[in-house]
TrEMBL record:
The keyword tRNA processing is assigned to this record: no
Domain Acyl-CoA oxidase/dehydrogenase middle stretches: 136-226
Catalytic activity of the protein: glutaryl-CoA + oxidized [electron-transfer flavoprotein] + 2 H(+) = (2E)-butenoyl-CoA + reduced [electron-transfer flavoprotein] + CO2
Classification of source organism: Bacteria, Bacillati, Actinomycetota, Actinomycetes, Streptosporangiales
Annotated protein name in UniProt: glutaryl-CoA dehydrogenase (ETF)
Acyl-CoA dehydrogenase/oxidase N-terminal domain residues: 22-132
Pathway this chain belongs to: Amino-acid metabolism; lysine degradation; Amino-acid metabolism; tryptophan metabolism
Family annotation (InterPro entries): Acyl-CoA_DH_CS, Acyl-CoA_Oxase/DH_mid-dom, Acyl-CoA_Oxase/DH_mid-dom_sf, AcylCo_DH-like_C, AcylCo_DH/oxidase_C, AcylCoA_DH/ox_N, AcylCoA_DH/ox_N_sf, AcylCoA_DH/oxidase_NM_dom_sf
Similarity field: Belongs to the acyl-CoA dehydrogenase family.
Length: 392
């Protein structure tokens, strides 16, 4: 007989819900319904076929999720916690879908809003907020990942124009983007450029054969004498501060999103263990299974609590990049552990797309690497603790 503690929600063990205000809960619940009704019935097929349905962009835009933490230009202007909760619910559906939301809002829209000209903002942000135009972020290169300062992509002046040459790699949304925010080395330092993807000399090649993030478009960007007008440059920033600030925005969404993936795996494990019967009773009644479930519950609830706390710091203007690294590092690590434990609870069924666990588990391998690897965030924390950088 099921004797769960009265009033205790096994999926919100610490009652984090009580820490949220009415608007935050409404936003979370709206996104949760969308994911359950629109995404979960289809995501296994999208993942298996390796497709991202472009029409989902407009649906996300109609919900106000694209650039939702930005002000003006058609953006919702929500607080940071609401944005994080939306990322959590979207990634409970799939990491690829949350990656789309993060890249669109935090990596493409954010730099245009923060560093762009008024013309750039008015041209792109309303369309991007609506999902009518898709953006991507060109920083990583084939030989420049964790060390963006070694990028080889160049931007040189030619009269009043700029000419870009170089290659970017592992670019989410690249093959479906209408606009790319590309970072390149200019004479005065690293500069950002707003590049319409139909500009002559700009081309993309999608990455195939992926066993992770399959419901997400990943591409190579190639720029061969891409000529841009002088006003294509982002006027508000010079140097690596520009792209690094964008990455910090995206990592904030990731630390919430990873908790969503972990929660989805934990929920699947609980439901399966209560329904799966062996030796005459549900496997949930065996000690070793209960140990797995208890460990997963602790990890999931701790991760969500950490995420909400960091969101409150961000809304108060007190969040610093090293704290974002703390959240990204630990929440992704915890999510991977939860996914692996959940896979074990489901046995052989855990490796099929009938259940979400193996999909989340493989996706999280990518999440652990992008937006700063586990190792890089470890060194960020090490420098914050000691005052001594150890990257080289």
């Amino acid at each position: 007989m099921n004797k769960r503690s009265a009033g205790l929600d096994p999926y919100d063990f610490l009652d984090v819900d009580s820490l949220l205000d009415t608007e935050e809960r409404e936003i979370r619940d709206t996104v949760r319904r969308f994911v359950r009704e629109r995404v979960l019935p289809e995501i296994g097929d999208w993942y298996e076929r390796g497709v991202f349905p472009r029409e989902i962009a407009k649906e996300l835009g109609s919900l106000g999720l694209l650039g939702m933490h930005l002000d003006g230009y058609g953006c919702a202007g929500t607080n940071a916690v609401s944005y994080g909760l939306a990322c959590l619910e979207v990634e409970a559906g799939d990491s690829g879908l949350r990656s789309f939301v993060s890249v669109q809002g935090s990596l493409a829209m954010f730099p245009i809003r923060a560093y762009g000209s008024e013309e750039q903002r008015e041209t792109w942000l309303p369309r991007m907020a609506a999902g009518e135009a898709i953006g991507c972020f060109g920083l990583t290169e084939p030989d420049s990942g964790s060390d963006p300062g070694s990028m080889r992509t160049t931007a040189r002046r030619d009269g009043s124009d700029w000419v870009l040459n170089g290659t970017k790699m592992w670019i989410t949304n690249g093959g479906i983007a209408d606009v790319a925010v590309v970072w390149a080395r200019a004479e005065e330092g690293v500069r950002g450029f707003v590049v319409p993807t139909d500009t002559p000399g700009f081309s993309t090649r999608d990455v195939h054969g992926k066993l992770s993030m399959r419901a997400s478009v990943t591409s190579e960007l190639v720029m061969e004498d891409v000529r841009l007008p002088g006003d294509a440059v982002l006027p508000g920033v010079v140097g690596l501060k520009g792209p690094l600030s964008c990455l910090n925005e995206a990592r904030f969404g990731i630390l919430f999103g990873a908790a969503g993936a972990a929660r989805a795996c934990y929920e699947a494990a609980v439901e399966y263990s209560l329904s799966r019967t062996q030796f005459g009773k549900p496997v949930a009644g065996f000690q070793l299974v209960q140990r797995k479930l208890a460990e997963m519950a602790v990890s999931v609830n701790r991760s969500i609590l950490l995420a909400v706390h960091l969101g409150r710091l961000k809304d108060a203007g007190r969040l610093v990049p090293a704290q974002v690294s703390f959240g990204k590092l630990d929440n992704v690590r915890q999510a991977l552990d939860v996914a692996r434990e959940a896979r074990g609870c489901l046995g052989a069924n855990g490796i099929t797309l009938e259940y979400p666990v193996i999909r989340h588990m493989t996706n999280l391998e990518s999440v652990s690497t992008y937006e700063g690897t586990h190792e890089i965030h470890t060194l960020v924390l090490g420098e914050a603790i000691t005052g001594m950088p150890a990257y080289r």
